[in-house]
Amino acid sequence: MKYKLIIFDMDGLMFDTEKMYYESCKKFAADYGFSYDINKRNQMAGMSEAGIHRFIADDIGSEEKTTQFRNKLKDYREEYFKSYEKSIKKEGLDQLLKFIKENNIRACVASSSSREKVSFLLEKERIYEYFDFIISGEELKESKPNPEIFIKAIEKARVEKNEALILEDSNNGYKAAKAAGIDYFIVHDTSFDKNFDADRELVDLYQVINYIN
Length: 213
Fold this sequence. Notes:
Blueprint: E1 5-8, H1 18-29, H2 38-44, H3 49-60, H4 63-83, H5 93-102, E2 106-110, H6 115-124, E3 133-135, H7 148-157, E4 164-168, H8 171-180, E5 183-186, H9 206-212
Parallel strand pairs: 1-2, 1-4, 2-3, 4-5
Protein name: HAD family phosphatase
Pfam families: HAD_2
């Protein structure tokens, strides 16, 4: 097969988490002077924690309020992830991971989320063993749309650009994938209305199997 490595984004691509992120941010934003809406959500999607912090701080003009706001969200979301019961895996994820494993293709997660959150969700959803390694947001100097996260992934896997495939859902992830010069597909997060067009799109993760088979 052509690919030796599949690079997975996490939020919105593998797991249905983005709607909860949006609703929780909207729940507390006004308390800290942050005028939050779907357009700002789309701008922030795919950014690292540091990138989101800078975005909010620039918007409200206060580092202190931004830190308080982000800590409030962190605590709220941690409780949610500990307590949810129904699986949040996206349609086709189990089948794709099984196909990759059976065909000896390596897989990694390249997510702007923290390593702690990525590891927790992979373990809770019982798919941790499918992934060879994780590249997380705190390891990055630059946030998506900078391609640093994807370049780090292929360097760690010791594969060439033409031997890897990126799977993403956000516009920032799309821009980062294009800038990296690595093959990619965008699988839009169906929890939201489509807010950008990509030149390489698939409907769901099932279709990835057909492409790489």
